[in-house]
Design goal:
This protein has ten helices and twelve strands. About 45% of the residues lie in helices and about 15% in strands. The protein is of the alpha/beta class and about 300 residues long. The chain has helices at about 15-25, 45-55, 70-75, 75-95, 135-155, 180-195, 215-230, 245-255, 280-285, 295-305; strands at about 5-10, 30-35, 60, 100-105, 160-165, 165-170, 200-205, 210, 210-215, 235, 245, 260-265. The chain has a domain at about 5-170 and about 210-240 and about 275-290: 3-Layer(aba) Sandwich (Rossmann fold), CATH 3.40.50. Helix 2 (about 45-55) runs parallel beside helix 4 and helix 6 (about 180-195) crosses helix 8 (about 245-255). The longest helix has 21 residues, at about 75-95. It binds guanosine-5'-diphosphate-beta-L-fucopyranose (GFB). Guanosine-5'-diphosphate-beta-L-fucopyranose binds next to helix 3, helix 6 and strand 7.
Length: about 300
Protein backbone atom coordinates (compact mmCIF):
# COMPACT_ATOMS: atom_id res chain seq x y z
CA UNK A 1 0.00 0.00 0.00
CA UNK A 2 1.23 3.50 -0.78
CA UNK A 3 0.49 6.35 1.62
CA UNK A 4 -1.99 7.79 -0.90
CA UNK A 5 -3.62 4.48 -1.90
CA UNK A 6 -7.40 4.57 -1.62
CA UNK A 7 -8.23 2.28 1.32
CA UNK A 8 -11.80 1.44 2.34
CA UNK A 9 -12.35 0.33 5.93
CA UNK A 10 -15.75 -1.39 6.02
CA UNK A 11 -17.04 -1.14 9.59
CA UNK A 12 -14.86 1.77 10.74
CA UNK A 13 -17.08 2.62 13.73
CA UNK A 14 -16.83 -0.84 15.30
CA UNK A 15 -14.10 -1.93 17.70
CA UNK A 16 -12.05 -3.65 14.98
CA UNK A 17 -12.58 -1.15 12.16
CA UNK A 18 -11.86 1.84 14.39
CA UNK A 19 -8.62 0.22 15.58
CA UNK A 20 -7.55 -0.36 11.96
CA UNK A 21 -8.50 3.26 11.18
CA UNK A 22 -6.31 4.57 14.04
CA UNK A 23 -3.45 2.34 12.89
CA UNK A 24 -3.60 3.55 9.27
CA UNK A 25 -3.77 7.19 10.36
CA UNK A 26 -0.77 6.69 12.65
CA UNK A 27 1.15 5.13 9.73
CA UNK A 28 0.50 8.26 7.65
CA UNK A 29 -2.10 6.98 5.17
CA UNK A 30 -3.95 9.94 3.67
CA UNK A 31 -6.68 8.49 1.47
CA UNK A 32 -8.83 6.39 3.81
CA UNK A 33 -12.47 5.92 2.84
CA UNK A 34 -15.14 5.33 5.47
CA UNK A 35 -18.95 5.18 5.34
CA UNK A 36 -21.40 4.88 8.22
CA UNK A 37 -24.10 2.24 7.90
CA UNK A 38 -26.72 4.94 7.28
CA UNK A 39 -24.60 6.34 4.43
CA UNK A 40 -23.97 2.91 2.90
CA UNK A 41 -25.90 -0.18 3.96
CA UNK A 42 -23.48 -2.98 3.16
CA UNK A 43 -26.30 -5.55 3.34
CA UNK A 44 -27.82 -4.15 0.14
CA UNK A 45 -26.14 -5.09 -3.11
CA UNK A 46 -26.95 -2.19 -5.44
CA UNK A 47 -25.56 0.72 -3.37
CA UNK A 48 -22.46 -1.31 -2.56
CA UNK A 49 -21.86 -1.96 -6.29
CA UNK A 50 -22.37 1.74 -7.03
CA UNK A 51 -20.02 2.79 -4.25
CA UNK A 52 -17.19 0.56 -5.51
CA UNK A 53 -17.74 1.59 -9.14
CA UNK A 54 -17.70 5.30 -8.28
CA UNK A 55 -14.81 5.26 -5.82
CA UNK A 56 -12.37 2.86 -7.57
CA UNK A 57 -10.89 1.62 -4.32
CA UNK A 58 -7.38 0.10 -4.13
CA UNK A 59 -7.49 -1.81 -0.80
CA UNK A 60 -10.27 -3.06 1.48
CA UNK A 61 -10.28 -4.05 5.14
CA UNK A 62 -13.57 -5.95 5.56
CA UNK A 63 -14.22 -5.42 9.27
CA UNK A 64 -17.98 -4.81 9.01
CA UNK A 65 -20.03 -7.58 10.60
CA UNK A 66 -22.89 -8.29 12.93
CA UNK A 67 -21.13 -9.45 16.10
CA UNK A 68 -21.97 -10.23 19.70
CA UNK A 69 -21.40 -12.52 22.64
CA UNK A 70 -22.64 -16.02 23.25
CA UNK A 71 -26.28 -15.05 23.99
CA UNK A 72 -26.59 -12.66 21.03
CA UNK A 73 -25.19 -15.32 18.68
CA UNK A 74 -27.57 -17.92 20.05
CA UNK A 75 -30.67 -15.67 20.10
CA UNK A 76 -30.41 -13.78 16.80
CA UNK A 77 -29.37 -16.79 14.74
CA UNK A 78 -31.09 -15.70 11.54
CA UNK A 79 -29.72 -12.15 11.72
CA UNK A 80 -26.15 -13.35 12.32
CA UNK A 81 -26.30 -15.64 9.30
CA UNK A 82 -28.19 -13.35 6.92
CA UNK A 83 -26.51 -10.02 7.69
CA UNK A 84 -22.98 -11.39 7.67
CA UNK A 85 -23.49 -13.33 4.45
CA UNK A 86 -24.95 -10.25 2.75
CA UNK A 87 -22.28 -7.81 3.94
CA UNK A 88 -19.33 -9.99 2.99
CA UNK A 89 -20.80 -11.23 -0.32
CA UNK A 90 -21.60 -7.69 -1.47
CA UNK A 91 -18.21 -6.28 -0.53
CA UNK A 92 -16.12 -9.21 -1.81
CA UNK A 93 -17.96 -9.42 -5.12
CA UNK A 94 -17.85 -5.64 -5.72
CA UNK A 95 -14.15 -5.64 -4.84
CA UNK A 96 -13.58 -8.28 -7.52
CA UNK A 97 -15.82 -6.52 -10.08
CA UNK A 98 -14.03 -3.17 -9.70
CA UNK A 99 -10.46 -4.49 -9.62
CA UNK A 100 -9.56 -3.90 -5.97
CA UNK A 101 -5.84 -4.73 -5.59
CA UNK A 102 -6.16 -6.50 -2.27
CA UNK A 103 -8.87 -7.27 0.29
CA UNK A 104 -8.58 -8.54 3.85
CA UNK A 105 -11.54 -10.47 5.27
CA UNK A 106 -11.77 -10.71 9.05
CA UNK A 107 -13.29 -13.88 10.53
CA UNK A 108 -13.29 -15.36 14.01
CA UNK A 109 -11.85 -18.24 16.01
CA UNK A 110 -15.37 -19.75 16.22
CA UNK A 111 -14.93 -21.07 12.64
CA UNK A 112 -13.01 -24.03 14.10
CA UNK A 113 -14.72 -27.23 15.29
CA UNK A 114 -16.09 -27.12 18.83
CA UNK A 115 -13.77 -29.92 19.95
CA UNK A 116 -10.75 -29.10 17.77
CA UNK A 117 -7.35 -30.15 19.17
CA UNK A 118 -5.68 -27.29 21.03
CA UNK A 119 -4.05 -25.01 20.07
CA UNK A 120 -6.03 -24.72 16.84
CA UNK A 121 -4.05 -24.71 13.61
CA UNK A 122 -5.38 -23.13 10.41
CA UNK A 123 -5.73 -26.56 8.78
CA UNK A 124 -8.34 -27.66 11.36
CA UNK A 125 -11.00 -25.69 9.47
CA UNK A 126 -13.92 -27.96 8.46
CA UNK A 127 -12.62 -31.03 10.28
CA UNK A 128 -15.53 -31.34 12.75
CA UNK A 129 -18.86 -30.06 14.04
CA UNK A 130 -19.20 -26.42 15.11
CA UNK A 131 -20.25 -25.08 18.53
CA UNK A 132 -24.03 -24.77 18.28
CA UNK A 133 -24.44 -21.38 20.05
CA UNK A 134 -22.51 -19.62 17.30
CA UNK A 135 -22.98 -21.95 14.34
CA UNK A 136 -24.80 -19.36 12.14
CA UNK A 137 -22.05 -16.77 12.66
CA UNK A 138 -19.35 -19.39 12.07
CA UNK A 139 -21.02 -20.65 8.89
CA UNK A 140 -21.13 -17.08 7.52
CA UNK A 141 -17.46 -16.52 8.37
CA UNK A 142 -16.45 -19.84 6.80
CA UNK A 143 -18.31 -18.78 3.65
CA UNK A 144 -16.27 -15.57 3.66
CA UNK A 145 -12.98 -17.49 3.83
CA UNK A 146 -14.10 -19.75 1.01
CA UNK A 147 -15.22 -16.76 -1.08
CA UNK A 148 -11.80 -15.15 -0.77
CA UNK A 149 -10.12 -18.40 -1.82
CA UNK A 150 -12.59 -18.99 -4.66
CA UNK A 151 -12.14 -15.48 -6.10
CA UNK A 152 -8.37 -15.97 -5.85
CA UNK A 153 -8.55 -19.36 -7.62
CA UNK A 154 -11.01 -18.37 -10.35
CA UNK A 155 -10.17 -14.69 -10.94
CA UNK A 156 -6.69 -14.23 -9.46
CA UNK A 157 -7.89 -11.75 -6.80
CA UNK A 158 -5.47 -11.07 -3.95
CA UNK A 159 -8.09 -11.59 -1.21
CA UNK A 160 -6.82 -12.85 2.15
CA UNK A 161 -8.53 -14.05 5.35
CA UNK A 162 -7.46 -13.53 8.95
CA UNK A 163 -9.00 -15.13 12.04
CA UNK A 164 -8.78 -13.06 15.22
CA UNK A 165 -9.26 -14.60 18.63
CA UNK A 166 -11.65 -12.99 21.19
CA UNK A 167 -11.01 -9.24 21.14
CA UNK A 168 -11.45 -6.27 23.47
CA UNK A 169 -10.60 -2.57 23.30
CA UNK A 170 -11.97 0.93 22.60
CA UNK A 171 -15.47 1.12 21.08
CA UNK A 172 -16.42 -2.28 22.45
CA UNK A 173 -20.04 -3.13 23.29
CA UNK A 174 -20.84 -3.17 27.04
CA UNK A 175 -24.42 -4.45 26.80
CA UNK A 176 -25.20 -6.82 29.67
CA UNK A 177 -27.09 -9.36 27.55
CA UNK A 178 -25.57 -9.21 24.09
CA UNK A 179 -21.90 -8.29 24.51
CA UNK A 180 -18.82 -10.51 24.97
CA UNK A 181 -17.61 -11.68 28.36
CA UNK A 182 -14.73 -9.25 28.92
CA UNK A 183 -16.56 -5.92 28.50
CA UNK A 184 -19.64 -7.31 30.26
CA UNK A 185 -17.63 -8.35 33.31
CA UNK A 186 -15.93 -4.93 33.42
CA UNK A 187 -19.36 -3.34 33.59
CA UNK A 188 -20.72 -5.85 36.10
CA UNK A 189 -17.76 -5.45 38.49
CA UNK A 190 -17.78 -1.65 38.12
CA UNK A 191 -21.49 -1.38 38.87
CA UNK A 192 -21.29 -3.90 41.74
CA UNK A 193 -18.49 -1.84 43.31
CA UNK A 194 -20.49 1.38 42.92
CA UNK A 195 -23.66 -0.17 44.35
CA UNK A 196 -21.91 -2.10 47.14
CA UNK A 197 -23.35 -5.40 45.86
CA UNK A 198 -22.07 -8.52 47.69
CA UNK A 199 -21.54 -10.66 44.55
CA UNK A 200 -21.16 -10.57 40.77
CA UNK A 201 -22.82 -13.21 38.60
CA UNK A 202 -20.68 -15.13 36.10
CA UNK A 203 -22.51 -17.05 33.39
CA UNK A 204 -21.93 -20.79 33.07
CA UNK A 205 -19.34 -22.71 35.06
CA UNK A 206 -16.34 -20.37 34.74
CA UNK A 207 -14.25 -23.27 33.41
CA UNK A 208 -14.21 -22.51 29.64
CA UNK A 209 -10.92 -21.07 28.46
CA UNK A 210 -10.61 -18.04 26.21
CA UNK A 211 -7.76 -16.10 24.63
CA UNK A 212 -7.99 -12.29 24.58
CA UNK A 213 -6.26 -9.85 22.23
CA UNK A 214 -6.39 -6.05 22.44
CA UNK A 215 -7.89 -4.42 19.33
CA UNK A 216 -4.76 -2.26 18.85
CA UNK A 217 -2.67 -5.44 18.62
CA UNK A 218 -5.18 -6.87 16.17
CA UNK A 219 -4.94 -3.72 14.01
CA UNK A 220 -1.17 -3.97 14.06
CA UNK A 221 -1.35 -7.62 12.92
CA UNK A 222 -3.87 -6.76 10.18
CA UNK A 223 -1.63 -3.99 8.88
CA UNK A 224 1.37 -6.34 8.97
CA UNK A 225 -0.49 -9.06 7.04
CA UNK A 226 -1.90 -6.58 4.51
CA UNK A 227 1.71 -5.65 3.76
CA UNK A 228 3.24 -9.13 3.93
CA UNK A 229 0.76 -11.96 3.25
CA UNK A 230 -0.59 -12.83 -0.20
CA UNK A 231 -1.71 -16.46 -0.05
CA UNK A 232 -4.89 -18.46 -0.01
CA UNK A 233 -6.12 -19.93 3.26
CA UNK A 234 -6.32 -18.19 6.59
CA UNK A 235 -3.99 -16.80 9.24
CA UNK A 236 -4.79 -16.96 12.97
CA UNK A 237 -4.28 -13.78 14.99
CA UNK A 238 -3.95 -14.13 18.75
CA UNK A 239 -1.56 -14.29 21.65
CA UNK A 240 -1.30 -18.08 21.91
CA UNK A 241 -2.19 -17.85 25.63
CA UNK A 242 -5.54 -18.33 27.34
CA UNK A 243 -7.22 -18.09 30.75
CA UNK A 244 -10.35 -19.62 32.28
CA UNK A 245 -13.39 -17.38 32.59
CA UNK A 246 -12.94 -17.49 36.38
CA UNK A 247 -9.31 -16.37 36.00
CA UNK A 248 -10.47 -13.54 33.74
CA UNK A 249 -13.12 -12.56 36.29
CA UNK A 250 -10.53 -12.52 39.10
CA UNK A 251 -8.23 -10.30 37.03
CA UNK A 252 -11.05 -7.86 36.26
CA UNK A 253 -12.14 -7.90 39.93
CA UNK A 254 -8.60 -6.88 40.89
CA UNK A 255 -8.30 -4.18 38.21
CA UNK A 256 -11.69 -2.71 39.19
CA UNK A 257 -10.92 -3.02 42.91
CA UNK A 258 -14.08 -4.93 43.79
CA UNK A 259 -14.13 -6.73 47.14
CA UNK A 260 -17.20 -8.99 46.84
CA UNK A 261 -17.49 -12.58 45.65
CA UNK A 262 -18.36 -14.46 42.43
CA UNK A 263 -21.52 -16.54 41.92
CA UNK A 264 -22.22 -18.74 38.92
CA UNK A 265 -25.43 -18.86 36.84
CA UNK A 266 -25.54 -22.43 35.54
CA UNK A 267 -28.60 -21.73 33.40
CA UNK A 268 -26.36 -19.81 30.97
CA UNK A 269 -24.31 -21.68 28.34
CA UNK A 270 -20.55 -22.23 28.50
CA UNK A 271 -20.12 -22.46 24.73
CA UNK A 272 -16.89 -23.93 23.36
CA UNK A 273 -14.79 -25.43 26.19
CA UNK A 274 -11.58 -23.97 24.77
CA UNK A 275 -10.49 -22.11 21.62
CA UNK A 276 -6.83 -21.31 21.81
CA UNK A 277 -5.23 -20.18 18.56
CA UNK A 278 -2.05 -21.74 17.24
CA UNK A 279 -0.26 -18.56 16.17
CA UNK A 280 2.92 -20.17 14.83
CA UNK A 281 2.11 -19.22 11.20
CA UNK A 282 1.83 -15.54 12.18
CA UNK A 283 4.87 -15.70 14.44
CA UNK A 284 6.94 -17.23 11.65
CA UNK A 285 5.83 -14.46 9.32
CA UNK A 286 7.28 -12.04 11.89
CA UNK A 287 4.47 -10.62 14.09
CA UNK A 288 3.83 -10.96 17.84
CA UNK A 289 1.36 -9.25 20.19
CA UNK A 290 2.57 -6.58 22.60
CA UNK A 291 -0.27 -5.75 25.04
CA UNK A 292 -0.45 -8.14 28.00
CA UNK A 293 -3.97 -8.96 29.22
CA UNK A 294 -3.63 -7.21 32.57
CA UNK A 295 -2.25 -4.03 30.97
CA UNK A 296 -4.98 -4.11 28.35
CA UNK A 297 -7.63 -4.53 31.05
CA UNK A 298 -6.26 -1.51 32.91
CA UNK A 299 -6.44 0.51 29.69
CA UNK A 300 -10.01 -0.39 28.83
CA UNK A 301 -11.18 -0.06 32.42
CA UNK A 302 -9.58 3.41 32.58
CA UNK A 303 -11.59 4.43 29.50
CA UNK A 304 -14.76 2.82 30.83
CA UNK A 305 -14.45 4.56 34.21
CA UNK A 306 -13.94 7.94 32.55
CA UNK A 307 -17.09 7.57 30.47
CA UNK A 308 -19.12 6.02 33.35
CA UNK A 309 -18.05 7.98 36.44
O1 LIG B 1 -17.48 -13.79 25.17
P1 LIG B 1 -18.60 -14.73 25.09
O2 LIG B 1 -19.97 -14.13 25.14
O3 LIG B 1 -18.54 -15.59 23.78
O4 LIG B 1 -18.52 -15.78 26.32
P2 LIG B 1 -17.76 -16.89 23.24
C1 LIG B 1 -17.34 -16.42 26.66
C2 LIG B 1 -17.53 -17.25 27.91
O5 LIG B 1 -17.74 -16.38 29.03
C3 LIG B 1 -18.73 -18.21 27.89
C4 LIG B 1 -18.84 -16.84 29.80
O6 LIG B 1 -18.36 -19.41 28.52
C5 LIG B 1 -19.76 -17.47 28.75
O7 LIG B 1 -20.71 -18.32 29.35
N1 LIG B 1 -19.42 -15.70 30.55
C6 LIG B 1 -19.42 -15.58 31.90
C7 LIG B 1 -20.06 -14.64 30.04
N2 LIG B 1 -20.06 -14.48 32.28
C8 LIG B 1 -20.47 -13.86 31.14
C9 LIG B 1 -21.19 -12.66 30.90
O8 LIG B 1 -21.59 -11.93 31.80
N3 LIG B 1 -21.38 -12.33 29.58
C10 LIG B 1 -20.94 -13.12 28.55
N4 LIG B 1 -21.16 -12.71 27.28
N5 LIG B 1 -20.28 -14.29 28.76
C11 LIG B 1 -18.41 -15.78 21.02
C12 LIG B 1 -19.13 -16.29 19.81
O9 LIG B 1 -18.26 -16.90 21.77
O10 LIG B 1 -17.12 -15.29 20.76
C13 LIG B 1 -18.94 -15.45 18.63
O11 LIG B 1 -20.48 -16.48 20.16
C14 LIG B 1 -17.53 -14.97 18.44
O12 LIG B 1 -19.34 -16.19 17.51
C15 LIG B 1 -16.97 -14.42 19.70
O13 LIG B 1 -16.70 -16.00 17.96
C16 LIG B 1 -15.51 -14.01 19.58
O14 LIG B 1 -16.28 -16.74 23.31
O15 LIG B 1 -18.29 -18.13 23.88
Amino acid sequence: MNKDSKIFIAGHRGMVGSAIHRKLLSEGFTNIMVRTSSELDLRVQEPVNEFFETEQIDYVFLAAAKVGGIMANNTYRADFLYENLMIQSNVIHSAYATGVKKLMFLGSSCIYPKLAPQPMKEEYLLTGLLESTNEPYAIAKIAGIKMCDAYRAQYGCNFISVMPTNLYGPNDNYDLQNAHVLPTLIRKFHEAKQNGDPAVTIWGTGTPKREFLHADDLASACFFLMENYNEEGLVNIGTGEDVTITELAMLIKEVVGYEGSLVYDHTKPDGTPRKLMDVSKLTQLGWKYSIELKDGLKRVYGDYKNSHP
